[in-house]
Backbone:
């Protein structure tokens, strides 16, 4: 299948849209009619611009309210069609895209509608053009692709086919097997869109909430399987009407779009167990086995403070880099790299963002394969300067310009800590932290779908529906992405992506005051949170104070013994439970740099304490009033 995208998907003027689409590597484009009408030049100019950019024009759509017009209006409708044919010829494309009529004047009757397509097909044939017919989910008489196909079948013109748009079909919950019975040469083109499940009328849902394949909840696999059964090899074009995309960067949305189609074709071919025309060869997605290390960029002057916090959390410096000003800190199965080198990536990152997480290293089954897959998905590879004898750890660009490293145990990469670091004896008593439970990344609201797609296309992942969390400064959308949790060989990866439209939430203030998206908090696991927190407090760690009301409420709504609640209250531990088990969590206060840590004890529980998130955010807001900058000098005045 040939990847394509409609100009309506991205922001900007027509030329900006086309440039972004070409830069993302698309070979073909659908021009949305409004973009052409608003363009201050001729269709021939658009044709030239597209040709220069290497973009084939698939169609200029839609052509509305065509079929079923009463006799008095019918002639005028064909006159309109002839004018549209002129336009298509000028643009150098051959497909008239008709969407089903929404006109209150439109008449029904399947043979009556088929007769309109007989005449339209004959007129198109005289000019060497084709016609495609799409059933809009809110069409007046035709809103089911099976009816559109029956009309096209009865019209019986070789140059008239159906357009299948995944949104209209799946939004209506239509069965999909009938797709497989449409002859492939009668499918004029296919449009792809996903969407989150919402209780909305189809029109509002379609015009504002469509998203890229993999970003929503529709059964695109079922759609693709049925489509593949036809043997269709034509255009697969993204048609996404989405308010976030209209506000976002055209280049980024176009690139995400291409990535989503590459992912969709790969996934479909894998599920079907056979090659699919147009699919890019790449290694299969694998699980993330564990977070191998977390790297902080920190200046020489900022380092003592961060080292102090790590030591108080029970981390020891266990390695000294052989050639750079970099140290390895560890506890249990957690490894933290502090990079203060005066050159290189971490240094530039620190200058821009202050003390912050500049890289995450993920353990995967095969690092080379993960890198190859990232490349095929058009992720951006990164190659840094390697010192003599140092390992060349493969990496791609991640959120906010940070890096995502891939490591495995099968290759030499497994020995990264011994190769790059000279061991130092541990000198701090551990506090019972065992591993990284999860990492939360804050980002612009408009970026959330980008990073959801980034992780979910690259790895074998599971996502849970996005949740709204209430911060005293506004609403934060929170999206969980997990990998490698079931039957894995490590702790897997749990990520929380946070974004908010309000500028006053803690998440948004982090992004704005620290000049970009990034890791805002890291949760470490313990098997005995009370002992751990007691030790942290003794070490001088300031824990986030939780109000008494929380514990009164907990007592009222849970069957926990009062002594247990008193112990949690004394240690500022929050509690949750679900059908699978119990959960306890506590937070440190914010560090300079806006980052904070969480301590977690899971006993079977698989969630993240969403019920407590509002309590935590209110407690943080009390300590960081909205009027004051949150993040101290690190964020306000980067060195
Ligand atoms: O929302 C619309 O009007 C509209 C127009 C053209 C399409 O292809 C479509 O799927 C929807
Ligand atoms: Mg459509």
Residues:
């Amino acid at each position: 299948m040939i990847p394509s995208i409609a100009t309506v998907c991205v922001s900007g003027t027509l030329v900006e849209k086309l440039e972004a689409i070409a830069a993302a590597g698309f070979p073909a484009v659908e021009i949305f009619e409004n973009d052409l009408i608003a363009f201050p030049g001729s269709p021939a100019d658009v044709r030239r611009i597209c040709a220069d950019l290497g973009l084939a024009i698939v169609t200029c759509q839609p052509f509305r309210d065509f079929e079923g017009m009463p006799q008095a209006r019918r002639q005028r409708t064909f006159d309109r069609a002839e004018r549209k044919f002129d336009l298509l010829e000028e643009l150098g494309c051959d497909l008239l895209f008709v969407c089903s009529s929404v006109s209150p004047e439109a008449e029904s009757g399947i043979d009556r509608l088929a007769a309109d397509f007989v005449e339209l097909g004959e007129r198109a044939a005289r000019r060497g053009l084709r016609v495609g017919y799409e059933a809009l989910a809110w069409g007046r008489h035709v809103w089911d692709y099976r009816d559109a196909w029956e009309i096209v079948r009865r019209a019986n013109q070789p140059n008239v086919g159906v357009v299948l748009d995944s949104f209209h079909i799946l939004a209506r919950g239509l069965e999909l097997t009938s797709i497989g019975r449409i002859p492939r040469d009668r499918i004029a083109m296919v449009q792809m869109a996903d969407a989150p499940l919402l209780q909305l009328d189809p029109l509002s849902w379609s015009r504002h909430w469509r998203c890229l394949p993999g970003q929503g909840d529709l059964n695109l696999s079922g759609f693709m399987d049925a489509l593949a059964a036809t043997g269709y090899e034509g255009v697969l074009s993204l048609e996404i009407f989405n308010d976030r995309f209209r506000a976002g960067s055209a280049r980024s949305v176009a690139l995400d779009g291409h990535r989503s189609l590459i992912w969709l074709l790969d996934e479909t071919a894998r599920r079907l167990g056979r090659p699919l025309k147009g699919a890019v060869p790449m290694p299969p997605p694998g699980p993330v086995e564990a977070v191998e290390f977390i790297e902080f960029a920190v200046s020489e002057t900022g380092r003592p403070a961060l080292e102090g916090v790590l030591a108080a959390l029970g981390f020891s410096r266990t390695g000294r880099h052989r050639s750079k000003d970099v140290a390895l800190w560890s506890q249990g199965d957690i490894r933290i790299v502090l990079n203060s080198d005066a050159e290189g990536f971490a240094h530039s990152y620190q200058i821009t963002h202050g003390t912050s997480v500049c890289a995450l290293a993920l353990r995967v089954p095969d690092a080379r394969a993960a890198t190859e897959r990232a490349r095929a998905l058009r992720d951006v590879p990164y190659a840094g300067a390697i010192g003599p004898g140092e390992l060349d750890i493969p990496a791609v660009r991640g959120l906010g310009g940070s890096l995502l490293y891939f490591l495995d145990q099968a290759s030499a990469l497994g020995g990264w800590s011994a190769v790059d670091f000279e061991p130092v004896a541990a000198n701090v008593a551990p506090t019972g932290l065992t591993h990284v439970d999860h990492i939360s990344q804050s980002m612009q609201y408009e970026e959330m779908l980008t990073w959801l797609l980034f992780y979910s296309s690259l790895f074998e992942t599971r996502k849970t529906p996005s949740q709204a969390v209430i911060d005293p400064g506004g609403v934060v959308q929170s999206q969980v992405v997990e990998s490698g949790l079931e039957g894995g060989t490590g702790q897997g990866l749990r990520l929380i992506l946070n974004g908010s439209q309000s500028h006053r939430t803690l998440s948004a203030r982090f992004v704005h005051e620290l000049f970009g998206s990034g890791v805002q908090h890291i949760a470490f696991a313990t098997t005995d949170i009370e002992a751990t927190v007691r030790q942290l407090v003794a070490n001088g760690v300031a824990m986030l104070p939780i109000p008494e009301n929380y514990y009164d409420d907990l007592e009222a709504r849970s069957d926990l013994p009062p002594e247990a609640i008193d112990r949690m209250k004394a240690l500022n531990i929050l509690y949750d439970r679900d059908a699978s088990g119990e959960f306890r969590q506590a937070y440190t206060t914010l560090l300079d740099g806006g980052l904070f840590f969480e301590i977690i004890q899971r006993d079977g529980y698989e969630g993240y304490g969403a019920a407590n998130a509002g309590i935590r955010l209110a407690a943080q807001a009390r300590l960081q009033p909205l009027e004051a900058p949150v993040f101290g000098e690190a964020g306000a005045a980067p060195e």
Observations:
- The chain has three domains: 2-272, 290-423, 433-636.
- The pocket of magnesium ion (ligand 2) is lined by residues 134, 165, 191, 239 (CB under 6 Å).
- The longest strand covers residues 433-444.
- DSSP finds 22 helices and 26 strands in the chain.
